[in-house]
Amino acid sequence: MKSKKLLALALSCVCALGAFALVGCSSGGGESSDGSAPAENGGAISVISREDGSGTRGAFTELFGVLDDNKKDATTSSAVVTNSTSVMMTTVAGDPASIGYISLGSVNETVKPVKIDGVAPSAEGVKDGSYKVARPFNVVAKDGMSEVAQDFLNFIMSAEGQEVVDSEYVSVADSAASYTASGKSGKVVVAGSSSVTPIMEKLAEAYEALNPDVKVEVQQSDSSTGVQSAIDGTCDLGMASRELKDSELSQGVKPVVIAMDGIAVIVNNGSSVDDLTSDQVKGIFTGDITDWSEIA
């Protein structure tokens, strides 16, 4: 008799666990395990942006018209602010309802880039003009830079340097002259944009291989900090992933475009959103569109 009671109790526990599992698998609201609604089911959009001073943010707001009547940044105050490309990608990868933006050259399998106005982001699209969301990568310096810094810049703009650029971005010097190792020694400090940093590190590695007595130190921050560091003379070359402002140019720095890069609008890999119009992106980042159900 006792064994029959134990068997009945065991069976009731199994049934209860099975019912619980079914409820758990069908969350009722279509939410993910962290409570966020995936884009295909509607739900509040998680807007992820970059920090003030980011060249990518500046270029993004200009290109999509995320601006107020005074041409000032009009990014919604509800946006989550991230301070680098890597943090942006990690944030979007971890939030099924999110949308953000990064340098095209930084896209990897952790996030999904979406088409803009029917065109997929690609280096080829930037080069032929079909993908319109593009901006320059600049290095900036004041007159009188050191000979070794000038030599490094010469390498960047050479055929060999532009070949490095072309591996992930869009080169800007199709008929550049070949570079010959200079035999110089010393140190070059390059500082600024987190978007430019990855290609600058590859350029530094290639240059150092030809000039083993030179150390190129790449310091990551943001575009505004990079430009200001060049103005202040605390670095040899500043990195900016946007056009320079008149207020910066008036302080004696000159930009050199070393590459062109697209800006990719990214969503979580679990999102069903594959294509957005420019107006939809603008609406999302200004706060006019707040729910994924508003995206046709």
Describe this structure in words.
This protein is of the alpha/beta class and 296 residues long. It is 35% helix and 22% strand. The chain has two domains: 39-134 and 264-294, Periplasmic binding protein-like II (D-Maltodextrin-Binding Protein, domain 2, 3-Layer(aba) Sandwich); 135-261, D-Maltodextrin-Binding Protein, domain 2. It has helices at 2-25, 55-64, 85-93, 123-128, 147-156, 159-166, 197-210, 223-232, 246-249, 278-286; strands at residues 46-50, 80-82, 98-103, 112-113, 115-116, 134-142, 186-193, 214-221, 237-240, 253-267, 275-276. Strands 1, 2, 3, 4, 6, 7, 8, 9 and 10 form a nine-stranded mixed β-sheet that branches. It has a two-stranded parallel sheet with strand order 5-11. Strand 7 (186-193), helix 7 and strand 8 form a beta-alpha-beta unit. The longest helix has 24 residues, at 2-25. The model is unreliable at 1-35 (pLDDT under 50).
